[in-house]
Write a structure and sequence with these properties.
The complex is a heterotrimer of chains A (355), B (451) and C (299).
Chain A lengths: L12 H4 L6 H21 L2 H27 L7 H18 L5 H20 L7 H21 L12 E2 L3 E3 L2 E3 L2 H24 L1 H19 L3 H28 L1 E2 L6 H14 L4 H26 L5 H22 L3 H15 L5
Antiparallel strand pairs in A: 1-4, 2-3
Helix pairs in contact in A: 2-7, 3-7, 3-9, 3-10, 3-11, 4-5, 4-6, 4-9, 5-9, 7-8, 7-9, 8-9, 10-11, 10-13, 11-12, 11-13
Chain B lengths: L4 H21 L10 E8 L6 H22 L6 E8 L4 H12 E2 L2 E2 L2 E2 L4 H7 L3 H4 L2 E3 L17 E2 L5 H16 L9 E7 L2 H4 L2 H11 L2 E7 L7 H10 L3 E5 L3 H13 L7 E3 L6 H4 L10 E4 L8 H11 L15 H23 L9 H9 L2 E2 L1 H7 L8 E2 L12 E5 L4 E3 L9 H19 L9
Helix pairs in contact in B: 2-13, 3-4, 6-8, 13-14
Chain C lengths: L2 H32 L6 H17 L4 H24 L7 H23 L16 H7 L5 H23 L1 H11 L1 H6 L4 H27 L8 H12 L4 H26 L7 H12 L14
Helix pairs in contact in C: 1-6, 1-7, 1-9, 1-10, 1-11, 2-3, 2-4, 2-9, 3-9, 6-7, 7-9, 10-11, 10-12
The chains are: A mainly alpha (355), B alpha/beta (451), C mainly alpha (299).
Chain lengths: 355, 451, 299
């Protein structure tokens, strides 16, 4: 009843190709943006902003990148943390070595650097498929982290080996409070998500999905396989790179290779699997789930048991529950939370009638 | 085999319910009593370093518990704490920092993550939040300069001091600095920032004393070191400094040394490579291995025995295995707790707030006023467990001294009755130079300390 | 750097490679029989070793602890098949991979919960010291445990190869790996076969865990040996048991030689990525690994 589209007519091609053809969807999106960009910075506590919302947005961005590569283009990759590292270090170096470099330009350049590296490591995908490709991308992960750690030039020969990110300065204003950092991240992620949505809906996305479903057939039909696959790697790495730069600048405040471990790569893959592989919304939902779940478990356990049970026990149980939930999700809803949301919307169309 | 929609709905409902419930709970509201000083403990109790973590954080908690039980807190102010699992991970650590920061209307003022990545992650938050970041024997060595790092401490022996101390001890074993000329010292280290920390000091000493430094990195996690040890044998190194982390790397280093018949008596480990957990898996091979220690092991300190009696006697001990009382990590944790409580004691006196809760500035004043004289050490019952030292506004490190311990197959024994000093002048000069560079880069104006 | 040193590095590398093969063997078994890439193999190695040492600490002697641990691993295998694999029949291979990663967390958490987080010593009765007569005669230091491990691995691989190629059970396993549905249709009891395979993989994990544990102590870092086994799998092919040994030897030898000879030029520590880059190079030439089955794709 709420979600009925009756009475909404689309009379021009422009209207037909909107992202949100239904009025309700448009309202919802505008409301979401209003809440996200206006209400939350005014209302949310520092803890919420610094520890939950900012990392959620950043990981959503990286999950978007991973989704483009694995969800849309079907290339299983485990190197996303490595590309994040490239982005983070590139941003640091651009801002360090070029005087007066604006932060947003550095962000874009760091994304491009990550894209170049991504394309280089994406070359094997032209010959290797499936699980083999996944393990091959691990090579990217290990090599990148080793190289960034080993060659002091990347860290400006800092003796401690961990470099502090410069403050983010846009048009002369320093963005260093939690609210300001949140706004930068929210805007960047919003813009890039919009771009990703449009790419996925357009011919680029269709080419990727064709490659994902059956690349030999796609090639036979005339799709330039090399260009499509490498573009997927490039764009995915761009997103991961920008995400990594934001991770270092807007969240951690330091740039160090050891923050970008293979564990992080796996978590990003989890995000898109649980969120919904091959969807934009899924990246956001999955990132929220993976990010919040350990915290949730931790808080719940401390509330229930307090100091009664040894903290080591609680930590181990958190780990077990995390694994069990992942398996349960894969069993009961393999298409992820995005599919669950779709079902909700379908139900909303008919509500309050059952069918 | 798709499950039908109803099961998805149940799962969906369950998840929605828990999310809603939890979002209301996450900023855990817990009303602290009026006279309680709250501490946040970012511990790690799972993962590859959990063995050390449970010992260290267990030691801190045991000491806090002891002070509460024996003296009713500090002048009547009870000590409370909350833990948060960081898994030795930078992102988790930062989240824990934010979560532990406030509890009700209380704020934590000391943060000791025992992890370099986490320490760095919160480095630029502590100034604004007025939280003392202690790096107990790790992290940035240049944090010893309190003018550039007003809220960061490197108590009580930074990596540079430790490297210098180890080399000083080594030179005594060789019969003097002059005899170090021409020797080959291999620095076997974890291929990370941590492993490369002592290099500035080692390289400098190599130049000054005339020995050859062979830098041999080991890729994480370091459970395979054949190539590295073959190289050590090839180069005919005289000494090996083991700068490793994690029982995997450390015990593997010792067993690999045994495989090529490299004498363990010529191996010296950094304090991260000098705990029981590091050598037990190596078994027989670890006999004779030396390590540096900030805090020696042992139960023959009056405080340790008292904690065992009072806290464990009442069944409130934090360690799941009481046999670990007196181990390296646990002792170290106890001394960390001692620093916190002494800071509180001092802070209350300096701010004239005896018996009241302290804020950040007052706690820092107390920490900077740490003055552990030999008499005070005896009072606390830890004579011989810590060197006597004091902190100042400018000196955030303290003594920079270490003890040398040696593994005899079943336990560690101190082989130096006194504390071994570092080359304070050289290390301090390096510290100030590095801190100045950091200040210039970050556009920090160093504060002025009273002379 | 003489020839003898080179030989020593080579032999050491080959023996290290054997240790990697032992871990990779578990992966291959499961993939060969059920098409699942079991990422939890590293956690299983850790869990098996920990259970073994834990049972011995509780007082059981060696000859009792061993079958008890085997029993535990068999139970683990059966539970995995029942609760993780059966509901996920016919799902995409990425989904199954993710499920095994979830399984990794469960196993790691359970291991630490049940047995605690302290590091433990594993004593197999063989000292980890160089073989004396070899050292005296040739000046090469090769550890006794390494040689023992090589022998054990050789025996294990031979037995498994024979089982797969000569026995009825082996044929059933290969049929299941080829096509689940077809195997079901001709009456092969799928669930039992899978439970069997996971149990065998669990036993292999135990052997690997015991040998690695004897070398490096039983502690959490053991789960990372799985990461060392992945390049072995790629080079050897996911489905070949003898291929695992050959690939292991290749990976072990090249890794050590590279670290010793090329490492110092670039600052060392290249062991972390060198086997992976090597694997990529192999894949570019043979996309299914040296001994893997050729992938035929129908369009």
């Amino acid at each position: 009843m709420i979600y009925r589209e009756s009475g909404q007519f689309r009379t021009t091609y422009n209207q037909d190709t909107q992202i949100f053809p239904l009025r309700q969807d448009r309202f919802a999106m505008i409301a979401l943006l209003a809440v996200g960009l206006v209400v939350i910075p005014l209302v949310a506590s520092d803890y919420w902003l610094k520890a939950l919302l900012i990392p959620w947005l950043i990981f959503s961005l990286v999950a978007l990148g991973q989704n483009i590569l694995t969800g849309y283009a079907g290339q299983l990759s485990l190197g996303s943390a490595g590309f994040m590292a490239v982005g983070a270090f590139a941003c640091y170096n651009f801002m360090l070595r070029i005087d007066g470099m604006p932060f947003l330009v550095a962000l874009v350049l760091s994304g491009i650097s990550a894209a170049v590296v991504g394309m280089a490591f994406g070359l094997p995908s032209l010959r290797i498929r499936g699980l083999y490709l996944a393990v091959a991308t691990l090579a990217a992960q290990f090599f990148i982290v080793w190289a960034l750690d080993k060659f002091g030039w990347f860290k400006n020969f800092d003796p401690s080996g961990v470099i502090t990110a410069q403050p983010m300065i846009i048009l002369g204003n320093v963005f260093d409070t939690a609210q300001e950092k949140y706004l930068i991240v929210a805007v960047v992620v919003g813009v890039l998500a919009l771009l990703a949505k449009n790419m996925a809906r357009g011919s680029t996305g269709r080419a990727w999905m064709a490659v994902r479903d059956m690349d030999v057939a796609a090639e036979v039909m005339g799709l330039p396989l090399v260009r499509t696959k490498l573009l997927a790697f490039a764009i995915s790495s761009f997103y991961c790179g920008v995400g990594g730069a934001l991770f270092a600048f807007a969240y951690l405040g330091t740039v160090e290779p050891s923050a970008f471990t293979i564990d992080l790569s796996f978590r990003i893959l989890f995000m898109i699997i649980i969120g919904g592989i091959g969807t934009i919304l899924g990246s956001f939902l999955g990132a929220a789930f993976i990010l919040l779940l350990p915290i949730l478990l931790s808080v719940v356990f401390h509330l229930i048991f307090g100091n009664a049970i040894s903290a080591s026990v609680i930590s181990s149980v958190e780990l077990i529950i995390f694994g069990v939930l992942i398996i349960a999700f894969l069993i009961y809803e393999p298409h992820g939370m995005a599919r669950m949301w779709q079902i909700v919307k379908e139900k909303l169309r008919l509500w309050p009638f059952p069918h | 085999m798709r499950m039908n929609l109803s099961i998805s709905k149940t799962l969906r409902g369950l998840i929605a319910a828990t999310v809603v419930a939890a979002t209301a709970l996450i900023p855990t509201v817990s009303f602290a009593q009026a006279k309680e000083q709250y501490f946040g403990i970012p511990s790690y109790r799972v993962g590859p370093f959990a063995a050390g973590g449970t010992g260290f954080f267990g030691g801190i908690i045991d000491y806090l518990q002891y002070v509460n039980m024996k003296e009713g807190g500090v002048r009547g102010v009870k000590l409370t704490w909350a833990e948060c699992e960081t898994e030795y991970n930078a992102a988790r650590g930062v989240e824990c920092y934010q979560r532990l920061l406030k509890k009700g209307n209380q704020q934590m003022h000391i943060f000791e993550p025992l992890a370099t990545p986490i320490a760095y992650g919160v480095l630029n938050r502590v100034d604004d939040d007025k939280v003392i970041l202690t790096q107990y024997g790790y992290g940035r060595s240049d944090a010893a300069d309190g003018t550039v790092f007003p809220w960061v401490f490197a108590t009580m022996t930074s990596y540079w001091s430790q490297a210098s101390g180890i080399m000083n001890w080594m030179s005594t074993k060789e019969g003097g600095i002059a005899n170090m000329k021409g020797k080959k010292i291999a620095h076997l280290h974890l291929d990370s920032a941590f492993g490369r920390e002592p290099l500035p000091v080692l390289r400098r000493l190599a130049k000054d004393w005339g020995f050859e430094l062979i830098e041999i990195p080991v890729a994480s996690p370091g459970i395979e070191q054949q190539a590295q040890w073959l190289r050590i044998r090839q180069e005919r190194a005289d000494w090996v400094i083991l700068w490793g982390f994690g029982a995997g790397m450390n015990s593997t280093a010792i067993t690999s040394a045994a495989r090529i018949n490299f004498p363990r008596e010529k191996m010296v480990g950094v304090w991260w490579a000098g705990s029981e957990e590091d050598v037990i898996p190596a078994g027989e091979a670890a006999k004779g291995y030396f390590a540096a220690a900030n805090v020696p092991n042992g139960k023959n300190f009056p405080l340790v025995q008292d904690i065992e009696k009072v806290v464990y006697g009442a069944g409130k001990g934090n360690l799941s295995d009481p046999k670990r009382i007196g181990s390296i990590y646990w002792n170290r944790g106890v001394t960390a707790g001692i620093f916190w409580v002494e800071a509180m004691r001092n802070g209350q006196v300096f701010a004239n707030k005896r018996g009241q809760v302290l804020n950040g500035d007052e706690m820092r004043a107390g920490f900077e006023g740490l003055n552990l004289t030999p008499a005070r050490l005896k009072e606390l019952g830890i004579e011989g467990m810590l060197p006597s030292f004091r902190l100042t506004c400018r000196d955030h490190e303290g003594s920079g001294q270490i003890k040398m311990i040696q593994w005899d197959g079943t336990k560690w024994n101190s082989v130096t009755p006194d504390w071994i000093s570092s080359d304070k002048k050289m290390v301090r000069a390096m510290v100030e130079e590095s801190a100045a560079k950091y200040a210039a880069e970050q556009r920090i104006i160093p504060r002025v300390c009273p002379a | 750097m003489g020839f003898q040193f080179f030989l020593e590095v080579l032999v050491t590398g080959l023996l290290s490679g054997v240790m990697y093969s032992l871990v990779a063997l578990g992966f291959v078994l499961i993939y060969k029989a059920s098409g699942v890439f079991n990422f939890a193999q590293g956690a299983m190695v850790f869990f098996a070793a920990l259970t073994f040492v834990g049972i011995m600490e509780l007082g059981a002697p060696f000859w009792l602890a061993l079958p008890l641990t085997i029993g535990v691993m068999v139970l683990l295998g059966m539970a995995t098949e029942r609760f993780v694999l059966r509901p996920l029949v016919n799902q995409h291979e990425i989904t199954l991979l993710m499920a095994t990663i979830g399984l990794t967390f469960v196993i790691e958490g359970t291991a630490q919960l049940v047995w605690g987080v302290e590091v433990r010593r594993l004593d197999l009765g063989i000292k980890d010291v160089p073989l004396k007569w070899l050292a005296d005669n040739t000046g090469m230091f090769i550890s006794q445990i390494d040689i023992f491990a090589a022998v054990v691995a050789a025996i294990l691989v031979s037995i498994l190869s024979l089982v797969f190629s000569r026995t009825k059970v082996g044929r059933a396993l290969r049929a299941v790996a080829d096509d689940h549905a077809a195997a079901l249709s001709i009456g092969i009891p799928l669930k039992r076969i899978w439970a069997l395979v996971w149990a065998i993989a669990g036993v292999v994990a135990l052997v690997a865990g015991m040998l690695w544990g004897a070398r490096s102590g039983v502690q959490f870092a053991l789960v990372f040996v799985a990461l060392k086994a992945l390049p072995v799998l790629i080079i050897g092919g996911f489905t070949s048991v003898p291929g695992v040994i050959v690939a292991g030897l290749i990976v072990g030898a090249t890794e050590k030689l590279a670290e010793v000879y090329i490492g110092p030029m670039v600052g060392g520590g290249i062991e972390s990525w060198f086997p992976y880059v090597l694997a990529i190079l192999f894949l570019l030439v043979r996309p299914e690994g040296l001994f893997g089955e050729k992938i035929i794709r129908r369009v």
